[in-house]
Amino acid sequence: MSQVHKILQIRNAIPAVVLYLVLVAAPVYGQTSVSAQSYNSRANQFLSKGDAGKALADYDIAITFDPHYAQAYYNRGNARKEMGDVEGALMDYNKAIELNPKFAEAYNNRGNIKKEAKDFDGAIADYSQAIEFNEKFAMAYNNRGTAFYRKGFFPQALENYNKAIKLDSQFALAYWNRGVLFFVESDRVAAKNDFERYVKLQKDCRISSEEIIRNLEFELNRKTGRSKN
Q1: What is the pLDDT of residue 108?
Q2: CA gyration radius for the chain?
Q3: Rounded distance, CA 95 to CA 115, Å?
Q4: 155: buried, middle or exposed (CB in 10 Å: 19+, 13-18, 0-12)?
Q5: CB 129 within 8 A of CB 100
Q6: pLDDT at position 171, please?
């Protein structure tokens, strides 16, 4: 065989070799993603059943398969938060946001951590980011309302609770929070209406709106020193 024929054979074989490598290599790269998703899914099941420890172990494996898997970091943050590891949860939410700067749920949950730490301005900033990336995120509006409430900014709190309820008319927690706000502002009629809605939406709720208001009044009197007890 002449040298020319050998060169032509090699050149003609190149596309077939490249195609073979693509077909063989593709499942290898794809398998990493599938494996990460599989462990992440199983971890979600563990977490939904209350087994945060097993969930955490699977999220670790998912992240090992795919260190750029933002959802797994977010989910692991939820598991760590449930286990009381607030710092670990914060690190995971930060990483999820670093990998996906438009991750609305991660901003919301990071905002919750800041709110619990009484960093209300930081929490409001995170909730606002969550809303920017998901304008129909009812929970983020509710949470931002609570942060404003705790700062004493009642009009802003009311505006956010109203928006949360407008987006989700079945949002029991938002009715509760707005009811408390109305109660604090001495609007008992509006508070009672919201508590009634809350009671109807809650399953197996055995307390009436009147009892809720009486309990709140008792707590208010106790804190202000007016309780006879």
Answers
A1: 98
A2: 27
A3: 19
A4: exposed
A5: no
A6: 98
Instruction: List the chain domain ranges.
Output: 3-162, 170-229
C-alpha 93/C-alpha 68 separation (Å) is 13
CATH class of 3-162: mainly alpha
Total length of the chain = 229
* Per-residue model confidence as pLDDT tens digits over 124-138: 999 999 999 999 999
What is the pTM assigned to this prediction? 0.82
Q: How far apart are CA 198 and CA 32, in angstroms?
A: 45
Amino acid at 197: R
Alpha helices in the chain (DSSP H): 3-48, 52-65, 70-82, 86-99, 104-116, 120-133, 138-151, 154-167, 172-184, 188-201, 209-223
Question: Are 161 and 174 a contacting pair, CB within 8 Å?
Answer: yes
The pLDDT tens digits of the residues spanning 149-175 come to 999 999 999 999 999 999 999 999 999
d(CA 191, CA 185): 9
Give, in degrees to the nearest 5, the angle at Cα 30 between 11 and 49. 175
